[in-house]
Amino acid sequence: SHSSVVLTEVHGKVGLIRINRPERMNALNDAVVDAIGAALDTFEADDAIGAIVITGNEKAFAAGADIGAMAEFDYQHAYRTDYITRNWERVKTCRKPIIAAVAGYALGGGCELAMMCDFIIAADNAKFGQPEIKLGILPGAGGTQRLPRAVGKAKAMDMCLTARFMDAEEAERAGLVSRIVPVDRLLDEALSAAQTIASYSLPVVMMVKECVNRAFESSLAEGLLFERRVFHAAFALEDQKEGMKAFLEKRPPQFKNR
Ligand code: HXC
């Protein structure tokens, strides 16, 4: 299916979302963010979809919010319209896992969008940055909050204050990305990781995502308690019976997502 600024495709059990403003380095505006949200609505409602990939093109995942659109904003306009961010949390509220497949630039809002996904697979040409300070603004969609949680205070402060970019190697070392692949392998790798996830029991996949995210919202004791409750709940699933039975019978499991 097509809308101009975002393209969607289905690959097996995976929903793919491509940001598609190549002439603007995939700069984000409300139309892009709304279209990503609409694609997530569709994929989340579709029982045949088990995981989602968001990507850009080989030059840019997204080079940030659209600077041309923001240049003349005043305070009341920024506040009232909540440009870019009014629908931002839709990526976070999606209960199915989302992989960001990042090639080229992931800057400003682009880096923040990638960080809001569940994990990032980077192409070897990926460049991450929060260069807002050069424009006389600051990160406004999670950069000062999610980046330190991902890479620690030192690198987050360095990136937000100097505006320097982090390449794929440094991003992997620092824990911002989970793996690096050659740029021409990026989409295959991300789709294959997503297919693997989608081959497991969807309720269990959702439980894992919910538990890991809880780690960032709670004390260790609360998080461990939450995990234990969800772990015990998994024994209510038919897929738990099937998964363990299949192991003992030395055959692949046939999960039914219930
Ligand atoms: C609007 C953009 C853009 C952006 C690139 N373009 N990034 N337009 N908003 N964020 C446009 C360029 O103006 C240019 O248009 C075309 O895309 C190609 O980009 P070039 O600059 O010619 O390419 P290159 O020299 O390869 O440099 C790539 C780049 C650079 C390093 C990514 O474009 C760049 O620094 N972009 C801005 C990055 C940035 O500051 N991001 C943070 C934005 S603020 P023309 O018409 O010349 O062809 C933000 C706040 C989010 O994200 C907070 C959320 C609320």
From TrEMBL:
<dbReference type="InterPro" id="IPR018376">
    <property type="entry name" value="Enoyl-CoA_hyd/isom_CS"/>
</dbReference>
<dbReference type="Pfam" id="PF00378">
    <property type="entry name" value="ECH_1"/>
</dbReference>
<keyword id="KW-0456">Lyase</keyword>
<dbReference type="InterPro" id="IPR029045">
    <property type="entry name" value="ClpP/crotonase-like_dom_sf"/>
</dbReference>
<comment type="function">
    <text>Could possibly oxidize fatty acids using specific components.</text>
</comment>
<keyword id="KW-0443">Lipid metabolism</keyword>
<dbReference type="GO" id="GO:0004300">
    <property type="term" value="F:enoyl-CoA hydratase activity"/>
</dbReference>
<protein>
    <recommendedName>
        <fullName>enoyl-CoA hydratase</fullName>
        <ecNumber>4.2.1.17</ecNumber>
    </recommendedName>
</protein>
<dbReference type="InterPro" id="IPR001753">
    <property type="entry name" value="Enoyl-CoA_hydra/iso"/>
</dbReference>
<dbReference type="InterPro" id="IPR014748">
    <property type="entry name" value="Enoyl-CoA_hydra_C"/>
</dbReference>
<dbReference type="GO" id="GO:0006635">
    <property type="term" value="P:fatty acid beta-oxidation"/>
</dbReference>
<comment type="similarity">
    <text>Belongs to the enoyl-CoA hydratase/isomerase family.</text>
</comment>
<keyword id="KW-0276">Fatty acid metabolism</keyword>
